[in-house]
């Protein structure tokens, strides 16, 4: 594997799941692979899970790791070419990236959508510059349009908990007070559509009107505007907030309607579904305390699988260095 930024980079999903379960059975079986290899993780945005799980995955493989928070202690980075740098940004991304590349073998990057320009966000302006100028394999740790390490962990979790060969998986929008990127729902949809193409899931998306995702991510999913109808017979409820994608509302909050909060009454419509969320989650907005604390909530094992998805990705990149 060269870079890891979309579902395409992982290839056959069933083979990837099998490899994940093998890694999970003995996560220290490959410590020789990462000897004297260094992972640098660059964060333009906050993180709890991605930071810890990716670092742990690298350590499981015997790698050295370094973490840099751009907002805390690094020079502020200019990302536009052709500007007169007389403002508050002392360094350009075009020098920073190859310098970072010179200190490591693999680079992880977290860079969320800025919501200032849809074209910049959806062309993955920051992530693609790392791929172009670092000379190193790049792992997306959530970029503007996708969060593939999360989606891979979600897929592993669904595989572990499913009780039927083709479970019904429902991605539901839920309210949130801040404008959040589409990266998690886009990516989840991309991975679920790939699993659906193998006949492994029945995938449905539900959201209020105006929250349509880009058609390239919706793919062959069924879109159901009635959340209660979508929940009927579901085996997995995957909740997430996102801001509007479609123009002229790109990056805007159109609703904070708590009628869309996932609660126990709505969960009774499902086939005793498991509740999933990538975390961090706002209780009372996305989901009630009762649902997230219920035995059907699998948010903690889901987060634990982030170590496994990251380890499979880093292992495959190390194998191809
Ligand atoms: C981020 C998002 O929605 O993309 C990260 C999720 C993993 N969430 C927040 O900023 C709250
Ligand atoms: N799910 C996830 O990526 O969490 P963090 O933002 O805490 O890394």
Give structural notes.
A five-stranded parallel beta sheet has the order 9-8-7-10-11. Strands 2-1-5-6 form a four-stranded parallel beta sheet, with helices on both faces. It contains twelve helices and eleven strands. The mean pLDDT is 98. The chain is of the alpha/beta class. 36% of the residues lie in helices and 14% in strands. β10 (236-240), α10 (264-267) and β11 (274-276) form a beta-alpha-beta unit. Phosphoric acid mono(formamide)ester is lined by residues 47-50, 142, 150, 278-280. The site of N-acetyl-L-norvaline has 7 residues, from α7.
Short summary of the structure?
By secondary structure, the protein is of the alpha/beta class. 36% of the residues lie in helices and 14% in strands. The strands form 3 sheets. A 5-stranded parallel beta sheet has the order 9-8-7-10-11.
Order of helices and strands: HEHEEEHEHHEHEHEHEHEHEHH
Summarize the biggest pleated sheet: 5 strands, parallel
Total helices: the number is: 12
CATH architecture of the largest domain: 3-Layer(aba) Sandwich
Poorly predicted runs of 5 or more residues: none
């Amino acid at each position: 594997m060269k870079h890891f930024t979309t579902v395409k980079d992982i290839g056959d999903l069933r083979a990837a799941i099998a490899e994940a379960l093998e890694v999970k059975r003995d996560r220290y079986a490959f410590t020789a692979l990462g000897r004297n290899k260094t992972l640098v993780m660059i964060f333009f945005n906050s993180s709890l899970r991605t930071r810890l799980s990716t670092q742990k995955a690298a350590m499981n493989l015997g790698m050295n790791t370094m973490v840099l928070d751009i907002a805390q202690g690094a020079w502020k980075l200019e990302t536009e070419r052709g500007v007169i740098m007389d403002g508050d940004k002392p360094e350009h991304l075009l020098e920073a990236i190859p310098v970072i590349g010179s200190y490591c073998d693999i680079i992880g990057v977290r860079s969320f959508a800025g919501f200032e320009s849809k074209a910049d966000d959806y062309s993955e302006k920051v992530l693609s510059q790392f791929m172009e100028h670092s000379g190193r394999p790049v792992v997306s740790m959530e970029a503007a349009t996708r969060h593939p390490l999360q989606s891979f962990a979600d897929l592993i979790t669904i595989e572990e908990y499913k009780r039927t060969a083709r479970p019904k998986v429902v991605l539901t929008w839920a309210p949130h007070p801040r404008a959040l990127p589409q990266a998690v729902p886009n990516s989840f949809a991309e991975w679920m559509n790939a699993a659906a193409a193998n006949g492994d899931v029945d995938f449905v998306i539900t959201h209020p009107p105006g929250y349509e995702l880009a058609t390239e991510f919706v793919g062959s999913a069924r879109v159901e505007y009635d959340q209660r109808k979508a929940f009927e017979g579901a085996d997995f409820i995957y909740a997430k907030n996102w801001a509007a994608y479609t123009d002229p509302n790109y990056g805007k909050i159109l609703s904070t309607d708590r009628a869309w909060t996932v609660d126990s009454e709505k969960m009774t419509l499902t086939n005793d579904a498991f509740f999933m969320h990538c975390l961090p989650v706002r209780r009372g907005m996305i989901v009630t305390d009762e649902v997230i604390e219920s035995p059907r909530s699998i948010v903690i094992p889901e987060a634990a699988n982030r170590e496994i998805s990251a380890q499979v990705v880093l292992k495959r990149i190390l194998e191809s260095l």
